[in-house]
Amino acid sequence: MSRTTFSRTAAASLLALSGALGAQGALAQQAGTYTGVTSEGLPISIIVESDGVGGFVFTQNQTQWTMTCTKGGNHTGYWYVGAYEPIVAGKVSWEFKSDFLYEKMKLKWNGSGTQVTGDFAASEPLFVDISTSTKQYTRCDSQVGLTFAAQLQPPIAAEAAPTARPQATRMVPVTTAE
After folding, report:
1. In whole angstroms, what is the distance from residue 173 CA to residue 38 CA?
2. Cα(41)–Cα(33) distance, rounded to whole angstroms?
3. Is residue 69 within 8 Å of residue 75, measured between CB atoms?
4. I need a labelling partner for 16 at 20 to 30 A (CA). Which of 2, 10, 102, 123 fits?
5. What is the pLDDT of residues 41-100, one digit of tens each?
């Protein structure tokens, strides 16, 4: 293989590799706060942060959702949940399970990284009557197929420093006659 052919082959390989990396970068989300609504019209907020080594992590969500309970009808749930899930190729799936709470989210970012869409499911118990000795509760679940869409919000601009120092006011004690 001649030196010219090797150089062209190496250049073509590097170009192909940079194209593949560029395509992956196009799927990348951006760090910041994404706000939007669920398919129920209730608010959702998602926060993405840098992982410090060139990637991004899903760190928290705040979600309102309608809980359909086995006893007692519907209630509005509001959760603030922290996480630290790496985002890979513009996607992340996250699940939290405990003895009494459950939440699952699937998130996917658009090509420009300015919108995230996904699915949300949740379940929790609510007390029916906490004043009884049996402490009865009812299971409450989110609707099946609850979806959301949220847009990246611009960072809050830092407040400009004042250009002139405010004038100090001298405080003089006041005495009153009694």
Report:
1. 58
2. 19
3. yes
4. 2
5. 999 999 999 999 999 999 999 999 899 888 878 888 888 888 899 999 999 998 988 888
Instruction: Copy the structure tokens of residue 133.
Output: 């000795």
134: number of Cβ within 10 Å: 7
pLDDT digits (tens, 9 = 90+) for 119-142: 999 998 886 666 777 767 788 899
C-alpha span between 116 and 35 (Å, rounded): 9
- Tokens (6 digits) for 134: 């049996």
Instruction: Select from 113, 147, 114, 155 the least CA-distant residue to 27.
Output: 113
Smallest Cα–Cα separation from 76: which of 149, 148, 140, 146?
Answer: 140
The answer to whether the pTM exceeds 0.70 is no
Nearest Cα neighbor of 112 from 29, 10, 34, 54 is 29
Two tokens, residue 40: 């129920």
How far apart are the C-alpha atoms of 44 and 38, rounded to whole Å?
7
65 with 145: CB under 8 angstroms? no
